[in-house]
Amino acid sequence: MRKLSIIIACLVAFSLVLAACGGKSNNTPTASQPASSKPADSSSASNPDPVVDPTQIKATISIYYPTPDQTEKRAIEDDKIKRFNAVYPNVEIVKSDWQYNPNEIGIKMGANEAPTLFNTYATEGKFLAEKGWAADITALFDSYDKKDQLNPILLNQFNIGGKIYAIPQQGYVVGTVVNTKMLKDKGVTVPPLDWTWDDVLTTAKAVADPAKGISGIAPMGKGNEAGWNWTNFLFEAGGEIQSDEGGKVTATFNSEAGLKALQFYQSLKDASVIPADWALGWGDAVGAFAQGRTAMVIAGPDGPLDQGLNQGGMGLEDLVVYPMPAASAGGKHTGVLGGDFLVINPNASPEEQQMAFQYAVFDYFSDAGLASLETNISAFKTDNKFFVPPVIQYFKQDSEYGAKVKAVYDKYDNVYQYSNELMGLLDGKPEAQFNTQDYYAAMTNVIQEVFSKKDVDLKAQLDAAAKTVQEKFFDQIKL
């Protein structure tokens, strides 16, 4: 999903795996020094195999490339490709703008058309690992000298059974982006960041103007995004999507917490604070926000910020990122934790997988990466555009490198910076690892019933959705 997913979705030669099994070899490879093409043996100490220089490896890799509408991101990627080829001149980079889709990945893999390095999001870790559609990059990860500096919040999303299956890029905790200018223009009190469901409803009522097509808040109601949006309220009410006990996965979202979250959605609908045309997907809801047709939108914050600032003509002072509201005062501001990740195609050759990994981490923790970041922020400023960083970076926020990145941001007035108060309130909860998209789809049907009809039996709807998910999907899982 977005917008978060991701945050942020690789193997060396077979000989590296064999060498890793030895555990104490003095020839342990690093990211810039791959293993020999032969396994270690008793003669290796006196006759060591020559080390392969990765800059001499010849390979062709296809990489995830931003779609045509993302011109700024394409410019950033083009710059990276140029710098990568300056170091690895024998690697041909093929650009692929295929966007990961769980309904297409099987076809892509079967036809051998998936890129060498492709993007995915947090929910897909277990699915891709079990299907064999993501390379086990544990050996590459273990040989990466910066592995301990990667953000564990993201890295753990693709740590499946102690093996690593993806490289984190960036992440998010779902929040609520608020157009505070709309509130101020109508004389509506701007709520505190430590807000509640009641604050959301009160604010939405005060700013909504149905006669003019202005909604107070635009929860997504079309596609799996609808179930994804609602899950934040399930979490805030203390609920869970599923349990995994005794070797069985059980649907638990039809709980008292689930009912409470669905009742809140019904209250939004009854108060006429959602759009009259409520069947909005991610792009529809975020687009409505950027156009000033709704005051609040629920998403990974960077998407609405980018569109509001760079397409909607809004200023930094107009937009505030809020955490998800607590169900009641003193409660947690829990939001779905998601992210963007890069996965390496397991069908690629060992050399291709190694170079795909090198490409993925090429700018990580580097001065060149900082220089590239500053160049791109400056280019955004020249084009009168704002730079919106991810909420969660691939590195630890309080690390030395994190401080260097913050210093770059502080030099420019066109960078959106998340407040310390916001970061202190965010409470990220990972998405479920079993059939998450199927669960989202089932809940989307429930939400559409609530938004389109009167006197809906909420508990019956939840129970029916849980029964469908349980029998059709969870009962098929063998743990």
TrEMBL record:
UniProt organism field: Candidatus Cohnella colombiensis
Name of the protein this chain belongs to: Extracellular solute-binding protein
Statement: the UniProt record of this protein carries the keyword Signal: yes
Keywords: Signal
Ranges of compositional bias, category Low complexity: 31-50
Entry-linked PROSITE patterns: PROKAR_LIPOPROTEIN
Signal recorded as keyword: yes
InterPro entries from the UniProt entry: Bact_solute-bd_prot1, SBP
Lineage, opening ranks: Bacteria, Bacillati, Bacillota, Bacilli, Bacillales
Signal sequence residues: 1-19
Segments of this protein annotated with the region Disordered: 26-53
Coiled-coil annotated residue ranges, if any: none
Record-linked PANTHER family: ARABINOSE-BINDING PROTEIN-RELATED (PTHR43649), SUGAR-BINDING LIPOPROTEIN (PTHR43649:SF16)
